[in-house]
Amino acid sequence: MQRLIQVPTRFGEDSENEDFFAYLSTLGGGFVNQDNYAQSFKLFNSKATLSSQSNQKIYKGTSSLKTNIELDNNSILVFHNDANIFYQNSNFSSKTTIFMNDNSRLFYLDGGFLGYANSQFKAKLSLRIFINNKLSINDIFYYNSNSSLNSLYNHNYFYTLIIKGDVEFKTIHNENLKAHSSIINNTNIIRISSDDNDLAMKYINDIKSNFLHKGGMKLILARQ
Questions:
Q1: Residue 174: partners with Cβ closer than 8 Å, 6 or more residues away
Q2: pTM for this model (two decimals)
Q3: How many CB atoms lie within 10 A of CB 121?
Q4: Mind giving me the DSSP string for 145-197?
C-alpha cells in the first residue's frame, strides 16, 4: 500500500519561495523477501531532485524495484539513489527506464555496498535511457559471484553516475578512489569504486553541485 502525494503545480506563484519539498514515499527498513515495488515520475517544465531517504537495505530473499521516469524538453532531474546495501543470500533486481528529449537534463546515480554480503548475493541493476524515443543507453550491472567484481577493482562501494548536460568533473585513479568516464550519445557515464564511501560521496556531490549550479537549481536537504 502506498499513499500518493500530488505536488502542487501552482506552488510559489504568490511567494518569493518557489521551492517545494515533500516525502513522496518510504520503504521503511528496506527490501525483504518477495517485496516488489514500482514507482513512476513525470516532469513537465520542472526542475526536481528525487533522492532516497538513506541507504537502501536489501535483505535475504528475492526482491525487485521498477522505476519509470519521463522528462519533457524543459525539465531537469537529479535522481540520487544512496547505496544499495546487499546482505547475504539476497537476490535483487532493479529496472529503471527514462524517457527524455534532446534538451532534457539528467543527473542519475545508483550503486551499492558489498561489505555485509561476503560475496554471497545476486544483483542486477538495469538502466535504459531513451532520447526522442530512441534507445540511447542500455546499462546493466550484473553480479552472481566474486568474479563479477574484477572490473570494480575489488572495492566495497561502487557507483554508476550518468549525466546528460553541462557539468565539470575529473578522472581519478588512486588507492582510495577510482573514477573513470566514457561518453555515449553525448551522455557522460562515470564508474566509481572505493572503500571509503565518504570520499566517494564527496566526489559525487561535488559533481552534483556543479550540475545543480549550471541548471539554476539548489538542493533542499531533507536530512543533515
A1: none
A2: 0.86
A3: 21
A4: SGGGGGGGTT-SEEEEEEEESS-----EESSSEEEEEEEETTEEEEEEEES-H
